[in-house]
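Batch manifest, entry 17 of 40.
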Amino acid sequence: MGLFKFNIDAFDKSEDIKKSLEVDIAKRIQNPLIINFYRLPEGDITHIVVFGFKNINELDSYFHTHQAKRGHISELKNLYILYVKSMKKSSPDDLIVKLLKED
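Output type: structure tokens
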């Protein structure tokens, strides 16, 4: 999971910056290594990206290349490595049951 801060100053001032950023993001999230992508409304972290890599070498290669090519656009603030074996729960079932019971 990567925590990023996008730098809007990296986009051409003559363009609509918000539109340019959205177009850039739409293009980037087509990457099959990206599982989930979240935009945060404010703060030092502007985006959270959940990636999937087959091994640590693929992760290392991706982020080395990413920062070399895109470091001026998106700054990697933190990177958390989560292993499948460490997952304890990944289901909304309990929440759905709770919501249904409340109605």
